[in-house]
């Protein structure tokens, strides 16, 4: 990787492009009536995906950028799970048929904060309202510090077959600085419990750019993680946006690494994982060669959605829970953010949708280009333009940015084909942004490019 490019482009604030257009462009012009109409027209022969957001944790990690809150009590969690069951039924009724489902993902927050029997009941409600395919992937995000043996058994009983464990860093100085003390032993115990419950597809989430973090501490964390041999790693750069997430103000900004140091940390983690036998997947994922994500990359089936890189091909995503985002072939929808408002709506048998975005033909055109760049590190503008009946040159919004990236050797352009250069993969968001017609139209704070 090239440090000169990190210095030149690292301060740019850009979307992660897990969707296009991105969430800051959603508006209240799209509401419940639109969502109902879109649900009725979903092609019910094709499998959909479901995302469930559980916005509760036992303690607040200061780096967190998610919609979540801290609770010590179990009653609010049980009430919220009841709301999820109700909303799942309401959406299924709006579709009008029992929709086949190929992927289910529980995110948060900490989904496993639910009682084991509550989680099992919720999965049972999903199976009642939707046709969950026999080979469906059911994934859950986990805080290894709080997973109990009964909960691990409930996950296995409910058909969960993939889990994502938050690790971030094993450096105790970094952990104190982000209010997340988590030992390697706690994480290893969590892994053992999951595998004993029959769940052997494991993802680890790591962060770089955290306060007091160094290249050496990043490499130590990776070395410990590799001993547990997860199937996948997600490696994200910490996004410090205290104006948006006020709890991040507890982090001392003077201890945060600069762009050059963040780049060195990212590069060191990537090199260590590749040396350990993991295949690099796009910008920030790594997988063992026989993992389905690595296979999707080899077969040209890699996709990108709100969970990052995926082999999920579904065009419909049902978002359940407070703040959850859904997608249909017509556009995006998002639920109300506040948990109290969410529960009030579903208690009245109302869908919780409060805003969204209806796709234009230009959006579909640009979304295809940006997804190929993010997934393949390359794109054939002529091929995509032909499928949309467009001029390939009309795709370029920021020609100056592309010319700068070409001049600096970050990309090459051969006629209408663009290739991200080796060592410049970490700038793929910068390349994608040259085709983003919405960038700069809304007030939003994005994470740094490096």
Q: How would you summarize the topology of this molecule?
A:
Layout: H1 3-9, E1 13-14, H2 32-40, E2 48-54, E3 56-57, E4 69-70, H3 75-95, E5 100-108, H4 116-129, E6 131-142, H5 149-157, E7 162-168, H6 172-178, H7 184-196, E8 202-208, H8 215-228, E9 232-237, H9 259-275, E10 279-281, E11 285-287, H10 292-299, E12 303-305, E13 308-310, E14 317-320, E15 325-328, E16 331-335, H11 339-347, E17 353-358, H12 361-376, E18 378-380, H13 381-388, H14 399-407, E19 411-414, E20 417-420, H15 428-433, E21 447-448
Parallel strand pairs: 2-5, 2-14, 3-4, 5-6, 6-7, 7-8, 8-9
Antiparallel strand pairs: 1-21, 9-11, 10-11, 12-13, 15-16, 16-17, 18-20, 19-20
- What strand line-up does the widest sheet have? 10-11-9-8-7-6-5-2-14
N/C terminus separation? 12 Å
Mean pLDDT: 94
* CATH topology name of the largest domain: TIM Barrel
List low-pLDDT spans.
none
Radius of gyration: 21 Å
The main β sheet shows up as:
9 strands, mixed
* Overall number of domains: 2
| CATH homologous superfamily label of the largest domain | Aldolase class I
Q: What fraction, in percent, of the residue positions are helical?
A: 25-40%
Q: Which CATH C-level class of the largest domain is it?
A: Alpha Beta
Count of strand segments:
21
Q: Tell me, briefly, the overall form.
A: globular
Beta-strand content: 15-25%
| CATH architecture verdict of the largest domain | Alpha-Beta Barrel
Count of discrete alpha- or pi-helical segments spanning 4 or more residues: 15
Provide the structure class.
alpha/beta
């Amino acid at each position: 990787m090239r440090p000169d490019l990190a210095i030149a482009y690292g301060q740019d604030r850009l979307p992660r492009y897990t969707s296009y257009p991105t969430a800051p462009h959603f508006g209240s012009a799209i509401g419940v009536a639109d969502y109902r109409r879109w649900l009725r027209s979903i092609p019910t022969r094709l499998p959909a995906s479901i995302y469930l957001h559980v916005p509760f944790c036992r303690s607040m990690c200061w780096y967190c950028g998610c919609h979540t809150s801290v609770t010590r009590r179990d009653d609010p969690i049980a009430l919220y799970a009841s709301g999820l069951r109700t909303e799942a039924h309401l959406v299924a009724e709006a579709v009008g048929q029992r929709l086949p489902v190929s992927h289910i993902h529980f995110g948060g927050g900490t989904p496993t904060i639910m009682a084991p029997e509550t989680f099992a009941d919720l999965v049972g409600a999903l199976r009642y309202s939707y046709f969950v395919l026999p080979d469906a992937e059911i994934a859950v995000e986990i805080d290894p510090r709080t997973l109990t043996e009964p909960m691990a058994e409930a996950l296995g009983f409910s058909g969960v077959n993939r889990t994502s464990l938050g690790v971030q860093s094993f450096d105790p100085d970094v952990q104190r600085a982000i209010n997340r003390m988590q030992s390697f032993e706690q994480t290893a115990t969590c892994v053992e419990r999951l595998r004993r419950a029959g769940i052997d597809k494991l993802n680890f989430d790591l962060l770089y750019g955290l306060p007091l973090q160094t290249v050496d501490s990043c490499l130590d964390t990776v070395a410990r993680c590799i001993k547990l041999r997860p199937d996948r790693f997600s490696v994200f750069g910490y996004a410090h946006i205290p104006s948006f997430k006020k709890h991040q103000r507890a982090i001392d900004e003077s201890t945060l690494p600069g762009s050059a140091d963040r780049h060195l940390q990212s590069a060191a983690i990537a090199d260590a994982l590749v040396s350990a036998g993991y295949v690099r997947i796009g910008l920030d994922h790594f997988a063992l060669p026989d993992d389905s994500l690595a296979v999707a990359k080899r077969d040209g089936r890699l996709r990108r959605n709100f969970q990052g890189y995926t082999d999920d091909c579904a065009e419909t995503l049902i978002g359940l829970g407070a703040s959850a985002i859904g997608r249909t072939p017509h556009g995006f929808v998002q639920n109300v953010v506040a948990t109290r408002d969410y529960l009030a709506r579903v208690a009245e048998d109302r869908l919780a949708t409060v805003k969204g975005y209806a796709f234009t033909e230009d959006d579909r055109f640009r979304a295809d280009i940006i997804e190929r760049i993010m997934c393949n590190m390359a794109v054939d503008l002529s091929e995509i333009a032909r499928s949309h009946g467009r001029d390939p040159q009309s795709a370029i919004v920021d020609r100056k940015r592309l010319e700068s990236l070409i001049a600096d050797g970050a990309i090459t352009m051969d006629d209408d084909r663009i290739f991200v250069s080796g060592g410049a993969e970490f700038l793929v968001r910068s390349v994608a942004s040259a085709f983003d017609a919405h960038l700069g139209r809304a007030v939003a704070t994005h994470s740094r490019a490096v």
